[in-house]
Amino acid sequence: MTNDNDSAGKIIGLAVSPIRTLLDRLNYTRKFTILWLLSAVAIAVVVYSLVASLDRVIEPSKLELEGIALVEPIIQTIQLVQIHRGLSIRAFVENKIMTEQRAAKQREMFRAFKAMEGELPARLTSSEAFASIKTRWQRLHTEEKQRLTVDDSFTAHTDLIEHLQALKVTIADDYALTLDPQIGTFYLIDTAINKLPRMIEYLGQIRAYGSGILVARKITEKQKIQLQILIAKIDTALKDFHAYLEKTIKHNPMLQDSFNKAAENIINSTQQIIELTVSDILTGHFSTPPDKFLEIATIEIDNSYTQLYQALLPTARDLIQRRIDQAQKTMFTSVGTALLLLLLVVYLSVSIYYAIIGNIQSLVRSARAFANGDLNARIRLTTRDELRWLCDSFNEMADGFNAMLEARIAAEAEQEQAKRAVMEGRERLHAVIESALDAVVQMDASEIIIGWNHQAEAIFGWTQEEVIGKTVSETIIPPQYREAHCQGLKHFLKTGDAPILNSRFEITGLHRDGHEFPVELAIVPIHMLGKYEFSAFIRDITGRKKSDELIWRQANFDSLTELPNRQMFYDRLDQDIKKTHRFGSKIALLFIDLDNFKEINDTLGHSMGDILLQEAAQRISHCVRETDTVARLGGDEFTVILAELDDIGSAERVAGNILQRLAEPFRLGDEVVHVSASIGITLYPDDATEIEALFRNADQAMYMAKNKGRNRFEYFTQAMQQAAQNRMRLIQELRRALTANQFRVFYQPIIDLRTGHIIKAETLVRWQHPERGLVNPAEFIPLAEETGLIVDIGNWVFRESARQLKQWKPLCAREFQISVNISPIQFHSTDFVCQAWHTYLQELGLPPHSFAIEITEGLLLDIDASVTDKLLAFHEMGIQVAIDDFGTGYSSLSYLKKFDIDYLKIDQSFVRDLAADTDDMALSEAIIVMAHKLGLKVIAEGVETETQQELLFTAGCDFAQGYLYSKPVPAEEFELLLTAAAGENP
Length: 986
Fold this sequence. Notes:
By secondary structure, the chain is α/β, with parallel strands linked by helices. The protein is built from 35 helices and 22 strands. The strands form 4 sheets. An 8-stranded mixed beta barrel has the order 13-14-16-17-18-19-20-21, surrounded by 4 helices. α23 links the parallel β11 (676-684) and β12. The protein is flat, with a radius of gyration of 48 Å.
């Protein structure tokens, strides 16, 4: 136990050694004077800090009380203007000049306004805003003379109320009502000043509208819409009021009973007015007398104002006043306590001073006698403090003085020998330390640096001469770690326990120039001659940390836009979902895809596309909060996580802002381009609770936005999910359909209008689903094109129709031809090989001209080298080309000659309503004449009547197909048509 006390005393002595050095130069009178002064200064600083801190509570709170006092007359004035508005509209509808009740309210309203004006400070009453309020006030005062209409009167009253509301908000801002530091009081004040008055104003507007309608006993559509809008606004305001009141109660539990009662009264009053408006006015019953409706509405609105005056505002004043009283009480108590403590310190210090001085004088007398040769001199003190220890030590010293003299010579010889051994060891150790690759810093148990190698100079910037003798705390340890270092050292010296010793760990070091940097540290304690020394081996790991940071950033952030990448996006979404579980809020996930980005990338180059993506990333980021996440998943796809949403409408506002910002022009070098975006929105946990499901939902909603015209946003719906699942299931079944032999080829005959013979046939693919029956081509062809299956399906249709043609050859005329529809996807596919078709025709012994391909005008608009080569390859083989649905696209006439088109097929939309002297007839004739001029044949689609056939024949059309001749039929039925035609035309 004594050893522990000695160790503790040594540590304390080392810690206070700097101040002790200073105090040793002063006598006790000056020492105690310094102590008294420091105590007084310390207590004064504490008292001043406390008073200043409490004053920061008291003064704003007093300002808030002034603000509430100024707001109350404004609210009362608004209440009277609302009542006057209802009475005025009723009077206008009844064509009354001035009822007694209305006149009384007007006088009361004017008195309230004068009272309000008198209570407001001059800086407000002299402002432009208040001048505007007085102008509107004067207009109401002279409304009878101005002959205002009902709408004018309503607008004038409402406009005045809005300006009074704005004045109230200005006062709330000026008097810090909206900046109350206590959240419970903040919600209470905001509820009383903003939320409840706004709801009461909407009720007042319904009162005015309803009274006028009941007097007139009729309601217009405009009035119905206005009432419905007001009811919707009340519903929203009521929700805001209820939410804020719940938050107020949450932070002020003692107000729960009274505020729940107030909320119940307000909600019941609001619901009563709304129900009466809906059941009697909007339905057109008009069973409630106008006076009765006005009275009921006024009573209920006054009930809300009563809750405002008697519950909300008084409670807010009480809470603020209580805060002021508590702060003042604390301030007075603290100041008094501090003064008492100061007096106590002075009293004790004076007593201790005189006790110490007396004992010291006795000690000095005995010591001087011993120094003058009186070895029997001893000190006699009755005190039990540390001076008694000194006296006892002095007496023991005197007793052992002679023995010590005798042993001194021998001890000095042994000590000299030990010093030589230590010096030799230190020299060897110094050579090893200086050659070490790590910085080696040695210190004693007092933190004093006693060793410092060259590598330490390189890492920390201190030379050995500068640092030896200083403490490690003042040289290489950052300020934030110094206290922990000192406590850890004390703990080790006291207990011998230190987990960080003899192990490597990372910490922050301090360079001489003040910058901090990461180091790897290992500390080894050395116990020698009853004392501890410590050797620290330190390595600068700044380069390694930067490398780790770079690797982490490359793994989690997009290198182009510096936005979080997919991995970081998933991680942040997971974290936001966990926070949502704790707080019960919602998350909106936005999936953004830039429209027409590929065209810009293809035309201006990838470098310009990268600039556009960087600018788009910045614009999106500026539309969200700092707490939200904007990520780039790749290409032109971005996502936004809107976390902790209390209002779902925030997602719509953000999406709208993003659409607006992205629609602004982008400057890419010398070019100015425009893009838009399609945004899909999904909500957590409403739509899904798993991250992957949320991502799929947002992606589906985004594609829905694209399908609806782009430059818009769409919310995810369950119907969309069902459609996506059906679509996925249909794609899976479509992949199996070809190998399962579920496809069928139907044929529709094409008639030569001159002879009436079947001269051609168009192939049409059908899917015979084992469960769903025949699937509409419009349903599965787009999916086949999207998945690329259209290439394999198209090849199968060609081979199947070629095989069938081989079988029909005896029944057909020599020039009989089958046309096959070719999708643009097939032309752009690298798997579509024209030569394979030609080889298959040769295997069957069929001439190439027995086949034609039908393409759309859209293919010619998106022409590229591969499409051009394939069209020319078909011509070189002898396979003819027809343009299907001609007249509905935008192809250039130059393409008709450039690619040696053989046939034009007039779209059935022109044929359907074909009649003499019509636009459709004129267009059809123009197409036929133009085609013939270019050496092309014309086929008319969708012919259903004899009249259409005759008009087309007269116009010079070459061929026709349609239900007049036959609908598309399976191969067996088409063979019967060929057989019948062969019998009629042997």
